[in-house]
Design goal:
This protein is an alpha+beta fold. It is built from three helices and eleven strands. The protein is elongated, with a radius of gyration of 37 Å.
Length: 201
Amino acid sequence: MTPDNSHFKKIKLNLQPMRYIIKSTTIVIIFFSLYVIVSCKEKHSLPVLTTVSISAVTLTSASSGGVITSDGGEAITARGVCWSIVANPTVSDNKTIDGTGIGSFESILTNLQAGTMYFVRAYATSIAGTSYGNEIAFKTTSTIPSAGNQIIADHTIVADFNKIPKYYIDLIKKMWVVVAGESTHVLIDMVQNYWKNLIRI
């Protein structure tokens, strides 16, 4: 007796549409995944920022900073300034790390060499990468600034007010303290004696 395979043939025919559906669904999933990946990449823009002008330049330090106006749609994870003795410095050179997020920030450049030209750029880093602000060049001072209108006490040049001899500081303090029993004439004499010993350039 010959076995009846008609039932199996019917099952096989019924499975053909399912195979097409599975293939079609797989193709749709692949294309959708590619679309999502491409869309996500398009959203990752680099931050936009500018470099703050250089100020407070000394022999070995200076002040700068940056202003981040856009994070490109991604959180800023690091920001600061970088500098080098050659143009276009990057975060691989000397740098500061001054917080996260958009907005303005201040940076202090330290351990500089006197009388040297430096190039500075602000930087901001996100998941999209690192971008840089405009480049600024400056030169550190090569000598200690002159005393100018500083004080000469006992013929000794004082570079800054923090180095005024203690003797004069004590006199100044006494001028503002009225001791019980002291007459006004004593206070006036102290002021006169102070100015005799304190000469301004």
